[in-house]
Amino acid sequence: MGSTGQQTNRFVDYFAVCGLEPSAVLQPGQFSGENTHHVHPLLRGYKSAVLSHYPTAVEGNTFESDGINMLCMPKGLTVRTQKQDREPKFHSFLMTREDGSRTYGAALTFYEQATSPRICAGMEVLQIKYKEDSLHRKLSNIESPSRSHVILESLSPKMDRRGFSPKHRRSSSPGISMQSPKMRRKTTPVHVPKQKKVANFDPLNDTLYVAKCICLIMQVPFIQPCRRFLESVYSAINSPSAPALPLESYIFNILYEVPSLPPGRTLSFSAPGETIVCQRPASTELPLCDNSMRECVELLGVEHLMELMTCALLESQILLVSREYHRLMLVAECLSALLFPFQWQHVYVPILPANLMHFLDAPVPFIMGLHLDEGMDQTNQLEIPSHAALCFVDIDNNCIDLPEDLPLFPNRHHVVHDLTQVLQRFNVSPKPLTEKTPTRTPTRGEGSFDWSFLKTELTLIGGSGRNLESSIEADQDSSYFSSPSRGESPTSIPPSKTDILRNNEIVSKVAAIVKRTGVITSISELEDRNSNTTSPDGDTNPETWNPELKKDVEELSLNSAIRELFLSKMVELLRHYETFVIQPTSHSIESWFANREHMQNFDKASFLSDQPEAYLPFLFPFVETQMFATFIDNKIISNWEEKEEALKIFDSRIDHFPASNPQTPDCEIDQLLISDAEANIRQRAVNIDYTAPSPHELTSKPADNNHKPGYFPKLQEEVLLKEPFTPKNKHRNNAPWRRKERQQQHSEHLQLAPQEREQIIQQARKGTVPQPVLSHLDQKQTNWKFVEGLLKECKVKTKKMLVSKMGQEAVELGHGDVNRSGVEENTLIASLCDLLERIFSHGIQKKQGKSALWSHVMGYRKMKEKRETLPEHSLSVPPQGSEVRRRSSSAADPALNPLPTDLLFDVRNVESMSQIKTDVGNARAFVRLALERKLLHKHLKLLLTDYELCKKRYKRYAFLRTEEEKEQFLYHLLSLNAVDYFCFTNSFISTVVSYRVLVVTSRKFQAATSANTWICVSGEMNDSKMISIPKNSQDFVFQHSNLGILTTVRIGHDNTGLLPRWMVDYILVRNEITGHTYKFPCGRWIGRGVDDDSLERLLVGELLPPPAECEEQARGSRTPPRSTSPILSRQAKGQAPKLDRDGIQEMLTDAVNNIVKHFYKPEKERGRLTVLLCGERGLVQCMEIVLQYGFRSARIFRNNFFIWDFLEKVAKYLDSIDQDDEGRLGSVQEKRARRTFCFTIHQINQGAAQAGKDGKFQLFVCIGIRDHMLHWWLPVLSETPVAASMYEDFSFLNCTSALDFLVNLLMQLDEFPISLESSITKGVEL
User: Which ranges are annotated Basic and acidic residues under compositional bias (predicted)?
Assistant: First the structure.
């Protein structure tokens, strides 16, 4: 919302009048921009000025005449005739100073009849010149190309109900175009907009009206009260009869006699013909936002509001466009309020004057509002710069053009659903949603606004122990109000406070005692004081309130409900942000500021690693924004200075958020916060803290009756500039509120016995408050319950993690629900990290740093280093090169030595991660690494069995010193070893990882190569570049940013040297941090003239079990590996597998079904599609067997046959008939199938020249499946003479029923979007 700088003691600082000076003539407006000669004179803006303002100056808020004039009339002064619309228009505005403080304004523009003949004559002259210019333009007809701007046209009304064109992408609403939602280029250098036909001014028959604006300037944005005041002033000057008092009396009253409104208070003051009530939220509530959220949602709709919020949070450029100034300010201010607790840090100009259009070229984030000329029709065009990051919002037509690649707000569908429920409760009808939201059981208050609930809250019942004076929520930062009584049952007619005071026996006795103390003189005095706390009409029954009060309360409640909902979503996202703040090491704020530019204040890598994967597209750019950086800076500055109000409120919301609650939407918490906020608003509405003095005559002389309906009178400056004398004592200025506070305290003390009251007074004087003292037994019971709660929570969390990981298998075993919560694995692990922190924090002697777990680990390392010096070999990296080969030479299969499982080995790996900056980040990385290595139980057991360390760090009652509970805790952690986690690998994307590679050459004669070999490793996150394998050393290490879970390896050589051919048995690749080892089987020759002439091969990997599980695997207690490389040792080439056609069909059906099942699984439970395509018994291998079956020449040319040879012959034949009559036959789809088949074959031969024939066939099948063309190509193959000559009649290509089976089976994959890894299609562009 921005700071308002030095606060004055006034509700309003200035009253100003803007318009045309009496002696002036119509001159071109200084704010209307250039090139207005083509605009009709009745639609132009003219020069305006501040005619008067009162008072002359206010300390702390200088009156900026030019700025206020520009913002009151941004387009300039306008002129109308009686034929045009002359309804008064209200809009608000703000001015931002260099120090970031803001001043707000409320302006009402209306029209007065022009009385000066010079104005009418000047309009005639301008019209004559306009006609001459129009005729000259038509004759010259100058049009020249221009490419400097993007022309956005007004939106067509034929768009769908959301504002999207059917052809437009999801992330972008339509642009502003009549024909297409996309931006288009215009070729006119000077754009002449189309205008509505305007009748010329006829001085004989028409009346000319000139705009005038009255304005209130304030430092706190009480927009609606000021709007009502200005509208009542306008009604008074338009009234046929003069008001009861001169306008000067009302203006003087609001300027000098209405005080500023402190937080948590309610104020009433007078306007011409009505009483205005306004309230301000307490310091513990959300800051004041007096703009109508109802109108904002009705203009934009729920979905567009969510998209606009996302753009603002990611600091995109936002341009608002409307024909009304009020809407521009409304949307901009509502958007700023919804950003809470963050503040927009960049250019913020909700109303951009026409002469400042060049601001749109600024290469920085901004929120700007651009006013469209009322004279232009809907087909006019607007020139604005083109930016990929620009969010263009047409408020009037409810359309939005979003930036490119805008991510979705986390849990967007839940937010939309909850927001819709809130709006339905308040009978708000936003723009229709484009997607259905799930329904849920309505809670109390849904439907119409629940005034009966307010009636219940206000019911007062007499009796002892009740607070008879107050019905307003206590403010934590002040003692203005006492806590209201709760739980009273509603009555049909609530008794008045006066009846209670007069008829209650107990009150009478208390009043007698108070009389003797001199606090009051009679009960009637309490009645007088009580009269100040009723509603404006003196009735506490909301059903009998005047409509204005009911409307105000409902609007404030809706504003608060929407803002609380958005704030709760930000709390869900950032509730753990404080643990990742990097606290400064400097002891003074000056030194911190000096080094601020060179420091990192937030551990972004650790924070993002704890977030659900679906949130990351939004959170990655969000944590890089300036508003987030400022928020973190303010958090750090609070170490030396008092917290900002926004930070206090946000932190208090986090404190009330359940610690054990997963990051899923919690509707109950939202509803509770919204209900509390509404209760505070309702209670303030019926308890007015201060009523300002009524307006009065300012002079003893009778005022001149200068009332003339329709004209704003000339105000008496000598009266309004004479500021009444006020003492400079700030306590005297707050006297009304202090008096109310004393009355409130007296009413609280009336119910206490004299001894209790005296005791409270003495305690207040001494500043001591008695603290509850727990007995030793109470402490023990409380601690025992806490320990039991931690243990129970550990059991629940580990079970959730297992059920989530096991998926449907756990449900079938009875360990989970079919309708699981769907909480992501990453969120569950983050929750486990939080639990471990709380366990290691319980009963600690002295906490060092923010992470008790990491502090314990560091303490263990320090103590162990003191006890002994560890042998170097236990923590060293396994030996390299020849030493590895020498050790493994005696073994049957070469292998890598296992990584150390020592705790300190993992600690050093975590400490080497440069992107982690905090102890909390180190602790979470340590937990994730240990969990992935299945060493979490082992590491924590090692820490907890060090009794000397535990005794030194923890008190006797600590959780970690309770033997039985500690054993159960470790047992629950041990259960996590039953499943595989990749929580470290998948979380730290930018971490540099060392990978050890072992290339195992076959034992066949001359299997080694003299060529220069290379390898390329691919994972789910990244691909390594081509890495040269060192000569005479097949075991080497390379470093690369995290590749993720490894999927494939491409290996090859340059075919140089005396013996270039190379036969690789398999390749092992190990992550040197996590210890995950992947095996990539090969078993094929690589080289020209051998095997299939391949110089490179693609190998598909499998994850090997940890070394500790090797024995179990050997005994058959572990499931066999899921897949092997598709490049296995070929059987006798051309020899058909020992399978009949039924067996082959069954194998192919299984391969297709596996792919179908892959896409029907939840995304998190899917395996790797590459394995299903290229792995053992995958689709490629099955198609190879299908096309080998029934090959006629296999008996003669069995050693030289490759399917790729057959495909090339078919492509050659199809190319030869392409120009013949035979090639012109067939349907369009058949011709397309032939063309795409030949094109694919040629592209593979060109792009994958280094691959062998089997590798090319693998690529052919994968591309055919990806593009859904394989089942179209098979009939093309079968219809060629090549197939008839090379295949038997019983083969799949020559048997009609078998071919139909293949086509129908492969067609089942058309509905799935199949994407291939870059390692498969590398070098081939299709």
Answer: 742-751
- The H helix count followed by the E strand count for the chain is 46, 26
DSSP secondary structure letter of residue 392: E
CB atoms within 10 A of CB 205: 8
Beta-carbon contacts of 566 under 8 Å, excluding residues fewer than 6 positions away, are 309, 338, 340, 415
Closest CA to 973 of 1007, 935, 1000: 935
Least confident segment among 231-235, 583-587, 1027-1031: 583-587
Rounded to 5°, the CA angle 258-263-266 comes to: 50
CB 790 within 8 A of CB 783: no
Measured CA distances, 736 to 540, 757, 1298 (Å) = 22, 25, 95
The secondary element (H helix, E strand) that includes residue 920 is helix 919-932
Per the CB < 8 A criterion, the answer to whether 1179 and 1261 are in contact is yes
Q: Which one, of 1175, 1165, 1171, lies nearest residue 979 by Cα?
A: 1165
Decide if 155 contacts 397 (C-beta within 8 A): yes
Q: Are 111 and 85 in contact (CB under 8 A)?
A: no
Helix, strand, or coil here: 390? strand
Which uninterrupted H or E stretch holds 1237?
A: helix 1228-1247
Q: State the chain's mean pLDDT as an integer.
A: 75
Structure tokens belonging to residue 531: 């009269």
Q: State how far the Cα of 270 lies from the Cα of 233, in Å rounded to an integer.
A: 11
* CA–CA separation, 1241 and 1207 (whole Å): 8
Collapsing DSSP to helix, strand or coil, 82 comes out as: coil
Residue 1278: HSE in the Cβ half-sphere, 13 Å Cα cutoff: 24
* Backbone φ, ψ for residue 634 (5° rounding): -65, -35
HSE-up (13 A, CA, CB side) for residue 651: 13
Strand order in the sheet with 184-185: 184-185, 150-153, 381-384
Are 1092 and 1039 contacting, i.e. CB atoms less than 8 angstroms apart? Answer: no
Pairing of strands 1013-1019, 1046-1053: antiparallel
Closest of 280, 357, 287 to residue 102, by C-alpha? 287
> Omega into 181 within 30° of 0, i.e. cis?
no
d(Cα 1256, Cα 1251) in Å, to the nearest integer? Answer: 6
Helix axes 1228-1247, 1253-1266, angle to 10 degrees: 140
Q: Are 215 and 107 in contact (CB under 8 A)?
A: yes
Question: pTM score > 0.70 for this model?
Answer: no
| Three-state secondary structure of 1239-1297 | HHHHHHHHHCCCECHHHHHHHHHHHHHHCCCHHHHHHHHHCCHHHHHHECCCCCCCCHH
Angle of CA points 807, 808, 811, to nearest 5°: 100
Residue 586, number of CB atoms within 10 A of its CB: 15
Tokens at residue 721, please? 């500039």
Helix (H) or strand (E) holding 1066: strand 1062-1071
Please report, for residues 146, 1154, 1182, 1320, the alpha-carbon distance to residue 1314 in angstroms, rounded to integers and kept in the order given: 44, 13, 18, 13
Query: Exposure pattern of 1192-1215 as b/e (b: 16+ CB <10 Å)?
Result: eebeeeeeebbbbebbbbbbeebe
What DSSP string describes 446-487?
-SS--HHHHHHHT----STT--SS--SPPPTT--SSPPPP--
Nearest-angstrom CA–CA distance, 211 and 119: 13
Closest to 563 in 3D by CA, of 339, 410, 338, 411: 338
Between CA 521 and CA 523 the distance in angstroms is 7
**Cα(912)–Cα(933) distance, rounded to whole angstroms?**
18
Residue 827: pLDDT band with limits 50, 70, 90: confident
The DSSP annotation for 1158-1201 comes to HHHS-GGG---HHHHHHSTT-HHHHHHHHHHTTBGGGGTSTTT-
What is the torsional sign of CA 1101, 1102, 1106, 1110? negative
